[in-house]
Amino acid sequence: MIGLLAEKIGMTQLFDERGRVTPVTVLAAGPCPIVQVKTPETDGYAALQIGFGRKRESLIPKGLQGHLKKHNAAGIRALKEVRVQDTSEYKVGQELTVSLFEVGSKVDVIGVSKGRGFAGVIRRHHFTCGRETHGCVTHKQPGSIGASAYPSRVIKGKKLPGRMGGARVTVKNLHVVGVDPEQHLIWVRGSIPGPPKSTVLIRKNG
User: Fold this and answer.
1) Whether residues 53 and 139 fall in one domain
2) Which Gene Ontology terms cover its molecular function (predicted)?
């Protein structure tokens, strides 16, 4: 599915003609130049490799520098592949813009959630606190995590304290509220993963 790389600017709210408020996330999407076109004949599948943003070349790994220079895209900050059904209408150097999307359509947004570090079960899995009465020492403990007789071990996948966040998250079926082709902006209803200034992928739904 065709998509665009974008930078998350932040959240705001819009009011309709009846005064109802809509929470939206503002994204600076594209323009994304096509760096490479992959076809089933040469690569085994059909996809577009798109770039986004600019970066000082000294900060780019040498191997990636060679790949970008080979395709006349030196200094690209981020690269991403998006699958397409037919690559015949696309070519290297062509720019994809927010004109791909229209108000009222649905999109999927893929990003990396905020890293929260090591977290307990209450914050990480929304467990309920224990009793806070006199003598109780299990306020924020997870409780029993398994029986001693059988299976005599902790079941795999048990919800326990651990690293929270910093994972790839896909939010599906977000409505496009507004599109500004001149400023390369797109407004989607609701929140998306990641902090402001993070890079996300907006993908057409269907």
Assistant:
1) no
2) rRNA binding; structural constituent of ribosome
Is 162 within 8 Å of 119 (Cβ atoms)? Answer: yes
CA gap 156, 189 in Å, rounded: 36
Q: How far is CA 204 from CA 90, 106, 150, 174, in A?
A: 17, 7, 48, 10
Residues 6+ positions from 167 with CB-CB distance below 8 Å: 112, 113
Tens digits of per-residue pLDDT, 43-61?
899 999 999 988 888 888 8
Alpha-carbon distance of 26 to 32, in angstroms, equals 17
Report how far Cα 20 is from the mean position of its chain's Cα atoms: 28
Which helix (H) or strand (E) segment holds residue 173: the answer is strand 168-180
Six-digit token string for 173 = 């079926």
- Structure tokens, 195: 């902090």
- Both structure tokens of 46: 């059909």
Q: What is the pTM of this model?
A: 0.82
Which of 128, 143, 161 corresponds to the end of one domain? 161
